[in-house]
């Protein structure tokens, strides 16, 4: 006579089935999280308007430079002139247009690495240009204080190039009390990016 089996009882789940379902669930969560991170990094860029026609930069790189200039030289700094007001991105655009193409391409790559480094080094959903000012400043500080030498040097290179553009602006120099003793006739010529 056959044993009496209970039809309503569920069969026990084997260890193999449990592990397989756990792997599927983990993969699904990983893909969803990765998709969310990539979606946050693939959104449209803000569209700051340059004061003059750009010679080298695309809209994306210009937006990154504008956000970086406003992070390094924010509005309300002691000189009273923000990076955007000093037209630092336009100045850097002119510098890059005069550089050898391989060096300018390296700078472009540095910008993109810094922009999307939020994903690689901080696992943030937002990229640098989408961060609020306080978070953008903390992100820049992490690059400056990183244990990895190349990250520190990338931050130093970006800050140096933007600093050249900022401190070359006539209003910044005037606010600092700089008097040009050895000015040349080319110094008196108006620059398109400052007009």
Written overview of the protein:
By secondary structure, this protein is mostly helical. It has seven helices and no strands. The protein has a domain at 42-176. The chain has helices at residues 15-42, 59-72, 88-98, 101-122, 133-144, 149-168, 170-176. Helix 2 crosses helix 3. The model has no long low-confidence stretch (mean pLDDT 80).
Q: Could you list some keywords that capture this structure?
A:
single chain; 195 residues; mainly alpha; 7 helices; 58% helix; elongated
TL;DR?
With about 200 residues, the protein is mostly helical. The chain is built from seven helices and no strands. Helix 2 packs across helix 3 and helix 3 crosses helix 6.
Element order, helices and strands?
A: HHHHHHH
Q: Sheet bearing the most strands, described?
A: none
Indicate the percent of residues in helices.
55-70%
End-to-end span in angstroms?
Answer: 101 Å
Shape: elongated
Number of strands: 0
Supply the number of helical segments. Answer: 7
Poorly predicted tracts of residues: none
Give me the secondary-structure category: mainly alpha
Strand content: under 5%
pLDDT average, as an integer? 80
Computed over alpha carbons, the radius of gyration is 26 Å
Write the layout of secondary structure elements.
Layout: H1 15-42, H2 59-72, H3 88-98, H4 101-122, H5 133-144, H6 149-168, H7 170-176
Helix pairs in contact: 2-3, 3-6
């Amino acid at each position: 006579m056959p044993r009496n089996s209970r039809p309503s009882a569920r069969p026990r789940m084997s260890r193999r089935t449990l592990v397989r379902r756990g792997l599927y669930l983990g993969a699904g969560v990983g893909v969803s999280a990765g998709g969310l991170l990539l979606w946050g990094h693939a959104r449209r860029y803000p569209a700051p308007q340059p004061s003059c026609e750009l010679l080298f930069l695309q809209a994306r790189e210009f937006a990154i430079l504008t956000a970086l200039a406003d992070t390094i030289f924010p509005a309300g700094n002691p000189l009273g002139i923000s990076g955007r007001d000093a037209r630092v991105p336009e100045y850097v655009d002119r510098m890059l247009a005069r550089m050898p193409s391989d060096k300018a391409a390296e700078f472009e790559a540095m910008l993109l690495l810094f922009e999307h480094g939020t994903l690689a080094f901080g696992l943030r959903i937002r990229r640098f240009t989408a961060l609020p000012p306080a978070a953008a400043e903390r992100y820049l500080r992490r690059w400056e204080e990183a244990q990895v030498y190349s990250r520190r040097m990338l931050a130093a290179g970006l800050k140096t190039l933007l600093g050249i553009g900022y401190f070359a602006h006539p209003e910044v120099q005037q606010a600092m009390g700089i008097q040009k003793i050895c000015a040349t006739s080319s110094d008196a010529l108006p620059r398109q990016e400052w007009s």
